[in-house]
């Protein structure tokens, strides 16, 4: 089931499943929010997810 995360910066991270969503979110964090790298767990990210 497709999911998304609405980042506070306005960017929308999407993934076809939870694994892809987490990968895409981690990539976005590394590119746009380097200060948060390593500070958000998989569970943190999935807790922010909504159905797409």
Compose a concise summary of this entry:
The protein is α+β, with helices and mostly antiparallel strands and 52 residues long. It is 40% helix and 19% strand. The model has no long low-confidence stretch (mean pLDDT 98).
What does this structure look like?
With 52 residues, this protein is of the alpha+beta class. Helices cover 40% and strands 19% of the residues. It has one domain. Strands 2-1-3 form a 3-stranded antiparallel sheet. It is globular.
Biggest sheet strand order reads: 2-1-3
Query: What is the averaged pLDDT score?
Result: 98
Structural class: alpha+beta
Note the overall shape: globular
User: How much of the polypeptide forms β-strand, as a percent range?
Assistant: 15-25%
Low-confidence residue ranges:
none
Features:
alpha+beta, three-stranded antiparallel β-sheet, 40% helix, globular
Q: What topology emerges from the helices and strands here?
A:
Elements: E1 3-6, E2 12-15, H1 18-32, H2 42-47, E3 50-51
Antiparallel strand pairs: 1-2, 1-3
